[in-house]
Amino acid sequence: MMPFAYSKPDSIEQAVQQAGPDARFIAGGTNLLDLMKENVERPARVIDITGLPLREVRTTANGGLQIGALVSNAELAWHLDVEARYPLLSQAILAGASPQLRNMASTGGNLLQRTRCHYFYDAAVPCNKRAPGSGCPARDGLNRQHAILGASEHCVAVHPSDMCVALAALEARVLVHGRQGEREIPFADFHRLPGATPERDNCLAEDELIVAIALPPPPFVACSHYLKLRDRASYAFALVSVAAGLVVADDNSIAGLRVALGGVAHKPWRDVGLERSMLGRPATRESYAAFADALLRDARPLAHNAFKITLAKNAIIRALTQAQAAEEHP
Amino acid sequence: MNSPLSGQPLDRVDGPAKVTGRARYAGEYPEPGLLYGSVVSGNVARGRIRRIDCDAALAVPGVVEVLHHLNRPKMAGDDESYEDADAAEGKPFRPLFNDRVLYSGQPLALVVAESLEVARYAGSLVRIEIDAEAHRTDLFAELDNAHDAPAELPGPRGDFAGAFEAAPFKVDATYSTPVEHHNPMEPHASTVIYNADGSLQVHDKTQGTQNSQDYLVKVFDLPKERVRVCAAYVGGAFGSGLRPQYQLTLAAMAALRLQRSVRVTLTRQQMFTFGYRPRTVQRLRLGADAQGRLLAISHEATGQTSRFEDFTEHLVEWSGMLYRCDNVALGYRLVPLDVYTPLDMRAPGAASGVIALECAMDELAQALSLDPLELRRVNFADSNGNEGKPYSSKALLDCYARGALRFGWHSRDPRPRSMQDQGELVGWGMAGGVWEAMQMKASARARLDADGHLWVSSATTDIGTGTYTVMTQIAADAFGMALADVTFQLGDSSLPTAPLQGGSFTVSSVGPAVRQACQALRGKLVAWAKGRYPELAGIDAGAFVVRDGQLQVAGKAYALEAMDVRVDAEPSARRQGFASATHSAVFVEVRIDEALGTLRVSRVVSAVAAGRVINPKTARSQILGGVVWGLGMALQEETQIDHGLGRYMNHNLAEYHIPVNADIGEIEVIFVDEPDDIVNELGSKGVGEIGVVGVAAAVANAVCHATGRRVRDFPLTVEKLLG
């Protein structure tokens, strides 16, 4: 770990004033500290934001929920409003990490987790995300966990968060504060695909701090399901995960459909246009299979992850079937 | 006389010290002025160091020295000095010896500083330029470069080729197992305390304090009496502490150079830079008659090794001894690669070799339409065909019977995919397990204080297995004392000689030495007391009891005097002419969601025949741990190497998967009765390895029963199960 300067600002304004290219905000530190120990992150300055007033979960005027960036993952998952109205989010959070990590990890920090690509994590080998221009050994190396959608020749890493997959399905908005003031970023635009600049995971500017996540009123409640598939029953990142939400009309046709995939791309993967095209179709396994095929149509496997295409398809069908069953048998 | 303590499920005598933090491990000993070493590891699999630039590291305040091959203190130049008690054949790795880079992750420099944080940071500033050379790390790509392993394999018996050719039922299948790393919870560490007189006291993570002592004596040319190595507590080792590891060499090197106390602790990532269970590819051929009797067995295995040592393990021998068969051919080859030398890892050889044998037996049962358990019963062997000797005991048929009964095996529908429950495919599989029951020379000392406390000692270790507890039980029984009046000391090279703690032979080797020492001391006490107190002269020795700090005989108390005895125990002479082994039968239930490739092991029953069990509680824990380990081997464990870089890449416990609690269902352990007065005077065979053997095969067999799919490439990850 490199020596670094430490500050603990009292206000959001102070925090963003102190931000800069050589600085990192720290909250729970569950990812940043690991990366610093491995010399993957080498900030000269660490800005501790845990003194900021960002710990509130409150209902908004439109019936949604606003979640402060410092609310811990555990608090959020067990929050009564979240459990009752956004069970998808609760399930997704509890599918990730371990109780100890969830106690420390913050809502804002969860969005900023770095990939678990082996090569990114080992500072002794090339990686375009960690050292731009050094190369991507994963493309022809150990890529079983890597992307099947939206990858580039420069990077095939996937985003590791479970919570973000649910937030994508819930169409959350990310509230950020910078020196120019506040702005809201639709969740779909927050994370980015790697393209030629895989070192950038998201669209935050250097001076911007996540202050809250805003959830619109729940589009579905019981009729949702988070399904995570991984190499062991707990404490493993997703090979594929699915956040599925469904609204079924009285005639058993699809009146609403949202599906976000985790573990398959550099960001939670959704296709809103495709979801819309499913409206009015019968809420059946056949429809879900057709949807899955279409969503995965552009999947491009690497040498060791072709299984993810089959797995994702089956997982989508299963998650939607479970979501539907959850409505019928709440 | 009270009922013996041996055989009782006593709590660990070291439990309170461990759970309250009083037990100190190698990297936890405080010492004024202690320096901290941080290892700088290489990232090239093969090459030569061109230049090492330490200027930036040395400029960091608090850095004392950076050691590397150009400035290290003098160390032995010959290979023999580096050969330890568990060395493989060849030229042992010599840390910081010269400019050769032999594998990725090799220690190339040691930064020594006033704090761990400074040492680690400065380590990141050391610039090492390496002229890389082409490397090869892929066993499968290098099979043509295999040579015969320098192992003493049993010669061929009978005519395998002819018998296999003529056999009406055959299996010919090839299995592969991956590289696995031990990853004990406690990382390797050595604290070298530099005494004022220049002698060294070392707290080392090791399974053999005297092995580490001998190594330091030879490598640094030190007088033996000036090096003492201790290992009071060891946080798991599983074989990783059988050889002195490089943190010991580096810590001692720095202490000798700087004449200061130095500690070196490896990072979790560095725990992937020395020994491991080697990757193997194994071809099994079995031939049988219509009744299932084995007519021919061939087991040919190839394992990986380093370019500098030929590591061998008992990989194929099991196929010549577990079942009765007259025509057997065993083969074992090695492929040298640009990697570190493999190292014994829990049930070395058996854990991977029995996978192939027991999966092939399952395939044979399918070919014969015979129950897999019945196939094994039909081929039961009461003698070891490799040695031509009868087993001293072999209650394997009882393991089959009791395990099957407990599991409910009789209600198994043999047809693949026939058992389903709530949308999941259910599979039942079983396998047998075997491990040698060895006995080594060992010594022990027993000393009685004048205040009536019994101190018993031997240089063995307790790597978490329960040695402190079991030896205390044996000593208390042999002397006839209460457990609370006995203390067993271990983990110190200055104590009476003990073998490495490995191979499941600690109880069977050190136990008899402890017992003999305590019996001899008791004899000495009785003789002394009869001389000192004439009125005791005619009283039977059995009436002499040490209690409440006094000698008590026939209702009267007598003052004690301190006395001691040392015993050097030899392996039991009665073992000549017999083979001895532990056995097991393991039954597994898996539940598979084929659409999602998920597998859950819902039930395991492991029935073990290991002679007499001294402590059923610690023994059960050994089997439970072994079963969990076996489930990890079956489903998760694999150190993944990038052959382009020649480097292990999942070198942390987030990405190197072992089971978590949520993966584990019911596990039931059964110890069957197995009287054995031949194997050693305790009749006990040891249980450290047997729990893991056979488990992975049983899982794969259960998967085949559940899905109809035979997976021969371990571990059985999602993509291999996806329907």
TrEMBL record, chain A:
Coiled-coil residues: none
Q: Where is the signal peptide?
A: none
**Database matches in Pfam families:** CO_deh_flav_C (PF03450), FAD_binding_5 (PF00941)
Cite the Gene3D superfamilies for this sequence.
3.30.465.10, CO dehydrogenase flavoprotein, C-terminal domain, Uridine Diphospho-n-acetylenolpyruvylglucosamine Reductase, domain 2
GO terms (molecular function) for this protein are: FAD binding; oxidoreductase activity
Query: Mind telling me which PANTHER family this protein's record contains?
Result: OXIDOREDUCTASE (PTHR42659:SF1), XANTHINE DEHYDROGENASE SUBUNIT C-RELATED (PTHR42659)
Name the UniProt record assigns to this protein: Xanthine dehydrogenase family protein subunit M
Query: Which organism encodes this protein?
Result: Pseudomonas bharatica CSV86
From TrEMBL, chain B:
Q: Domain of life here?
A: Bacteria
Q: Where is the signal peptide?
A: none
- Molecular function, one GO term: oxidoreductase activity
The protein's matches in PANTHER family, at most eight in alphabetical order, are given as:
DEHYDROGENASE (PTHR11908:SF153), XANTHINE DEHYDROGENASE (PTHR11908)
Q: What is this protein called?
A: Xanthine dehydrogenase family protein molybdopterin-binding subunit
